[in-house]
Design a protein that fits this description.
By secondary structure, the chain is of the alpha/beta class. It contains 6 helices and 9 strands; from the N terminus they run αββαβαβαβαβαβββ.
């Protein structure tokens, strides 16, 4: 199987408004096109997650996050603190553009974003040519799925495609911090 064909079914599902499961640094994630409100709301419903909490977006590179991040609100002296974490398993809370949908940012004026270093998740974003919603594949409050089979056990046929590849070596979810304030929300 070529690298492109490995990702083709997942990309087709994303383009058709579907929800896909894919490996990340520590577990399987559920993802979709962040601009597709129906797909994002389906993820929230599948997980039984409250919209007010917001979601994480992952990307191949920072440019994929620019439609959602208010880049102009990041001062020059804070840029190193932002970019020094990526690519990597660190999710940053950055200022959201005023038009960023509530279904993505929840009740916050920031948006949670990460340039992932997991090769499969990163390549999926690159080939899809967009950032993706990335939330752990689990029901709210339950352990995250760490294999394709666990995703299937939890969600059965409710996920449109499962990209069956290994997760990364991390045992904990991504660290979450605000590099502009120094606050750590998950270590």
């Amino acid at each position: 199987m070529t690298e492109t064909s490995l990702y083709s079914p997942a990309i087709a599902a994303i383009e058709q408004g579907g929800v896909v499961a894919y490996p990340t640094e520590s577990c399987f994630g559920l993802g979709c096109d962040p601009n597709n409100q129906a797909a994002v709301l389906k993820i929230l419903e599948l997980k039984q997650r409250n919209i007010s909490k917001g979601l994480i977006l992952i990307a191949h590179d920072y440019s994929q996050l620019l439609p959602f991040v208010d880049d102009g609100a990041i001062s020059q002296d804070k840029r190193f603190q932002v970019f020094s974490h990526w690519p990597g398993p660190v999710t940053l809370l950055l200022p959201a553009k005023p038009n960023t949908a509530r279904y993505l940012k929840g009740d916050f004026d920031t948006i949670a974003v990460r340039v992932t270093n997991h090769p499969v998740a990163r390549e999926l974003c690159r080939q899809a040519d967009t950032a993706l919603v990335s939330t752990s594949a689990n029901l709210a409050g339950q352990p995250s799925a760490v294999s394709a089979q666990e995703v299937k056990n939890i969600f059965a046929e409710q996920v449109d495609y499962v990209l069956d590849q290994p997760i990364g070596q991390r045992t904990k979810p991504s660290k979450i911090l605000n590099p502009l304030t120094g606050e750590v929300f998950r270590s």
